[in-house]
Amino acid sequence: MNEKIAKEISKLLSLVLRHSPETIQIKLDENGWTDVDKLITQCNKSHKNINLGTLEYVVENNDKKRFSFNNDKTKIRANQGHSIQVELNLKEVKPLEYLYHGTVAKFLPNIKSEGIQKMSRQHVHLSADKETATKVGGRRGVPIILTVRSGDMYEDGYEFYLSDNNVWLTDAVPVNYIEFQS
């Protein structure tokens, strides 16, 4: 498959499965799943020529593993990153001692005063390694990597979840758990 087309389809899936299913007149259930046949039909009406093979390719080859199928591939959903309310049924997990958050300089004043907030999403997204956090921060400019003392947060009662695509999730990161690079 042409990588440019795969990237366009991935962006469309991110939009409709994480933020605006109404864009192509589909509905997500309470857990974020939608019917694959309906998704294909609606995508083909308004955007791209998509079939099950195309979706399988995008799900398998997405660099961030943003999407997943159910066991029989009749349903598809985004693994995390929703700005709409869905229940992903994530189980609380003890995090690594340190996790990382990629950002850019323009957000630092707010982070230094309010900590890391989920903003329009359901959770704050954290990475297990600096390389992934660098990629995330680099999407908006020159990346700045913040170290989060997640082990201390967990010991103090904060909950953490690990999505199917290995993104660490929490509700917020208070500023006193963030190590800023000087």
From TrEMBL:
<dbReference type="InterPro" id="IPR002745">
    <property type="entry name" value="Ptrans_KptA/Tpt1"/>
</dbReference>
<dbReference type="GO" id="GO:0003950">
    <property type="term" value="F:NAD+ poly-ADP-ribosyltransferase activity"/>
</dbReference>
<dbReference type="GO" id="GO:0000215">
    <property type="term" value="F:tRNA 2'-phosphotransferase activity"/>
</dbReference>
<keyword id="KW-0520">NAD</keyword>
<dbReference type="Pfam" id="PF01885">
    <property type="entry name" value="PTS_2-RNA"/>
</dbReference>
<dbReference type="InterPro" id="IPR042081">
    <property type="entry name" value="RNA_2'-PTrans_C"/>
</dbReference>
<comment type="function">
    <text>Removes the 2'-phosphate from RNA via an intermediate in which the phosphate is ADP-ribosylated by NAD followed by a presumed transesterification to release the RNA and generate ADP-ribose 1''-2''-cyclic phosphate (APPR&gt;P). May function as an ADP-ribosylase.</text>
</comment>
<dbReference type="InterPro" id="IPR042080">
    <property type="entry name" value="RNA_2'-PTrans_N"/>
</dbReference>
<dbReference type="InterPro" id="IPR022928">
    <property type="entry name" value="RNA_2'-PTrans_KptA"/>
</dbReference>
<keyword id="KW-0808">Transferase</keyword>
<dbReference type="GO" id="GO:0006388">
    <property type="term" value="P:tRNA splicing, via endonucleolytic cleavage and ligation"/>
</dbReference>
<protein>
    <recommendedName>
        <fullName>Probable RNA 2'-phosphotransferase</fullName>
        <ecNumber>2.7.1.-</ecNumber>
    </recommendedName>
</protein>
<comment type="similarity">
    <text>Belongs to the KptA/TPT1 family.</text>
</comment>
